[in-house]
Design a protein that fits this description.
The protein has about 325 residues and is mainly beta. The chain has five helices and 17 strands. It is globular. The structure holds 2-acetamido-2-deoxy-beta-D-glucopyranose (2 copies).
């Protein structure tokens, strides 16, 4: 089932049932070559990321010492008690002459078009779930994947070639080979079961797992909300036959040198203040899927204009604009 059907199925649950659907915008916080989960302390990390959320994001974010909610002074997300950080790789366009241009993110045209890039973030639940503990983090997918079989180990690490802002068909695990009139939507969905003990694991993945027959396995018995990203990449300026490869291949490449798309992955560090996330889940908040209505009075919000103001200067000073001779970092193809 495609994620949008899952969303509609969740939305159709009878009122009174335990189910939540938080959907909100987080503007771009910074584009930087840092990765505090996979390469803590490395300035720069091997590849470039686009990051949203609280401004306590840093090269190193130790799971015990680093309390995002008390360190951050602003968040680029609409829910102001959410100082979590959410990030993905960065998309590049490769020209016929071998140079690269960074593709910007754009606000979600369904309600959040005023957002200065970034992501739309969802927390979904059906049934009672336990919010993450302070210090919790996880990744999903892998920059090393280059086959569909690998990418499919995780449901919904997908691309949707938008013909309009409401296109929700033709999703795929690799880069589309045709023009996407309204841009390229990339989705990242995290597992929903937790081992109940560890806020992290050596591979940043094995402390969480997917349900088996709709139930969390005994090794990972605690149901957690489903964290889910949608990132809208503004590929529209590149919809020009004269710019695309003459051999019919597609021109986009992830910042870690992947021209297949199968290496799509996401990173998450929990940083909600106090019990705010649990409160919203317990209140069964149901945000609208097509507008900016977050429908969650138990949470404090800010306007998109305010969320756009929360940004950080990149720690790694390098040129990211214009046509670049190589991808930032060491992972050039
Ligand atoms: C990032 O970490 C460094 C070293 O611990 C610290 O000096 C700096 O203030 C931190 N920056 C932010 C934005 O938290
Ligand atoms: C490479 O191609 C791009 C896109 O066609 C063009 O704008 C740029 O000037 C070219 N750069 C060089 C060094 O030829």
């Amino acid at each position: 089932m495609h994620w949008s059907q899952l969303l509609l199925a969740a939305a159709a649950l009878a009122p009174g049932a335990n189910s939540a659907q938080l959907r909100f915008s987080c503007a771009q916080l910074v584009v930087d070559r840092l990765d505090p989960i996979v390469n803590p302390g490395a300035i720069p990390s091997p590849h470039l990321h686009q990051i949203v959320g609280g401004n306590a994001f840093n090269a190193s974010m130790d799971s015990t010492a680093h309390d995002l909610a008390s360190t951050a002074t602003c968040t680029s997300c609409v829910f102001t008690e959410d100082f979590s950080n959410y990030w993905t790789a960065v998309l590049f366009f490769k020209a016929r002459n071998g140079t690269y241009k960074r593709v910007p993110t754009m606000g979600n045209p369904l309600g959040y078009q005023a957002s200065q890039g970034g992501q739309t973030v969802y927390y979904l639940s059906s049934g009672k779930v336990t919010a993450f503990k302070p210090g919790f983090r996880m990744t999903v997918g892998s920059p090393t994947y280059r086959t569909q079989a690998e990418a499919k180990k995780n449901p919904a690490l997908q691309f949707t070639c938008l013909q309009s802002s409401t296109t929700r068909t033709g999703y795929r695990y690799d880069f589309p080979t045709e023009f996407c009139k309204a841009g390229l939507m990339v989705t990242v969905r995290f597992p929903t079961c937790w081992d109940g003990t560890n806020v992290d694991s050596p591979d940043h993945q094995s402390h969480v797992a997917y349900p088996v027959n709709k139930k969390c396995p005994s090794t990972h018995p605690v149901a957690i909300p489903e964290v889910f990203y949608e990132t809208y990449w503004d590929t529209r300026p590149f919809n020009d036959k004269a710019l695309w490869p003459a051999d019919g291949s597609q021109p986009f490449v992830w910042s870690f040198g992947d021209a297949t798309g199968y290496g799509n992955h996401g990173d998450y560090v929990f940083g909600w203040k106090g019990d705010a996330l649990q409160r919203a889940l317990d209140a069964n908040c149901q945000s609208d899927l097509f507008s900016d209505k977050t429908n969650c009075p138990t949470l404090k919000t800010q306007t998109i204009t305010q969320s756009n103001k929360c940004s950080m200067a990149p720690r790694v000073k390098e040129n990211l604009d214009g046509w670049l001779a190589k991808l930032p970092g060491t992972m050039d193809m």
